[in-house]
Specification:
By secondary structure, the chain is mostly beta strands. It is built from seven helices and 34 strands. Helix content is about 15%, strand content about 40%. A hairpin with a 5-residue loop joins β27 and β28 (about 340-345).
Length: about 450
């Protein structure tokens, strides 16, 4: 009996030595993991089951279930929503070996695809060639929207109302800047509204010559005058700094005085500037003023042009026609001395008003001038002022609003000044309230 016990002990010792020599783990466990597509479609990489060996000393298979469509495709209208492992819901790429305590069934989980409709509101602007009324974005399998959704702003998408500039978006009542990824704000069907603000560069006007020249050694300062379109008495008070050639100019190098805003560049400073063209731009507390250029010439160059004081006779003049690739420009310039009080880019809107103004100017006595537009919703001073000069002429406009065609007629002899707002516009709907709207496609 004693010898048999010794023999069994020796055999057990030899088995342990053998396992140790073969580096086998006495406590290793092997489980069968079976997969259930749960209504999904098995792909080319699908396997029904795998053997997973785990031990108390090492994970011989760091086991992570996979999801991609080569393994299993979701049912129609569904998206992946994780796994069920022994009653525990886990996400994709989660190592689950701690849950494998027995033969296990791993079930794929699905949920309905969730789409949000994002509608855009141009908010008074003009829709550009790249405008879309709405897009659909999808809540993807990580809980965020797909694609990485960022609303866009450019003149190809939306053109600001006249005299305005882009000021961000309103998304569900939250103001966000351009190029902001807004997917965290998309929790429902959403309206993204374009926001506009008064263009800072158009609040102020340069009043003076555009051929300002300083001749070296002349010691004659050069002077610029700027004024505000509205509340001009605030111009001097709101002045902040002066930018010359892209840099803030030290206050010792120029003088300012009121009367709108008069800027005088010191001759001693001008002597330090290199010959050639330079740019000057005032900055106000509420925005930038227009940039103007001046020339510094060597001694003996052409004399500066000084215009005698007189009463300006301002008229609109086209100085550069619009092309398919570039805006043109009109100036409100004095016909006597050429001083420019206002510059206006010739966009499609300006061209529309300019053409109408020409039709009014050349109309026969007592004529009715008719125009049609599917893009614009107002008239501007450019055409309205011409109509004020022709009280014998009426104007009929066919236009589109919210997909419906309307017609409004401004009768001959109407008080044009009373029709314009403070910025010189008269909206078609406003005119319809005054004179009545009809729908020509229903007549």
């Amino acid at each position: 009996m004693k010898s048999r016990l010794i023999s069994l002990m020796a055999t057990a010792a030899m088995v342990l030595v053998l396992f140790a020599g073969l580096k086998l783990d006495v406590y290793a466990m092997t489980y069968t993991v079976t997969y259930d597509p749960n209504g999904g479609t098995k792909g080319p990489d699908w396997v029904d089951s795998v053997q997973v060996t785990l031990s108390d000393t090492a994970q011989e298979a760091w086991f992570t279930p996979n999801y991609y469509e080569d393994v299993v495709a979701p049912p129609a209208g569904m998206v992946f929503d994780g796994f069920d492992v022994n009653g525990t819901r886990v996400w994709s790429v989660t190592a689950v070996q701690s849950l494998l305590t027995e033969n296990t069934l791993i079930k794929y989980l699905w949920k309905s695809e969730l789409y949000y409709t994002v509608n855009y509101d141009v908010n008074g602007g003009t829709k550009g060639p790249d405008w879309v009324d709405s897009v659909q974005v999808k809540l993807n399998d990580s809980g965020s929207v797909d694609p990485w959704f960022t609303p866009n702003y450019s003149d190809q998408v939306a053109i600001p109302p006249e005299g305005m500039e882009f000021d961000g978006f309103d998304v569900n009542g939250t103001k966000v800047a351009a190029v902001t990824a807004v997917q965290s704000l998309l929790t429902e069907n959403t309206i993204i509204k374009y926001l506009w603000k008064e263009s800072s560069s158009k609040k102020y006007i340069y009043e003076g010559d555009f051929d300002v020249i300083y001749k070296k050694k002349s010691q004659r300062p050069i002077i610029f005058r700027f004024h505000r379109r509205a509340d001009d008495e605030q111009t001097f008070k709101l002045f902040k700094e002066l930018i010359v050639d892209g840099s803030i100019l030290d206050r010792s190098k120029f003088m300012i005085s009121s009367g709108s805003l008069i800027v005088e560049l010191n001759a001693d400073y001008l002597e330090t500037l290199p010959e050639g063209e330079h740019t000057l731009q005032p900055v106000f507390e509420d925005g930038e003023g227009p940039a103007v250029t001046f020339l510094v010439e060597k001694e003996g160059g052409s004399e500066p042009v000084y215009v005698d004081h007189h009463e300006h006779n301002y008229v609109w003049q086209v100085v550069r026609e619009a092309t398919p690739t570039a805006d043109g420009e009109m100036v409100y310039a004095c016909s006597v001395c050429g001083a420019v009080a206002q510059r206006l880019p010739i966009t499609g809107y300006v061209a529309f008003n300019r053409d109408l103004a020409e039709k009014i100017r050349t109309a026969l006595p007592g004529a009715e001038v008719r125009v049609k537009t599917n893009m614009w919703i107002s008239l501007y001073s450019l055409s309205l002022d011409e109509l004020a000069k022709r009280p014998d002429v009426s104007v009929t406009v066919d236009f589109m609003y919210n997909g419906m065609n309307y017609r409004v007629t401004i009768p001959a002899g109407a008080d044009i000044a009373a029709l314009k707002d403070e910025k010189g516009y008269a909206g078609f709907l406003f005119l319809g309230m005054k004179f009545g709207l009809t729908q020509p496609d229903k007549n």
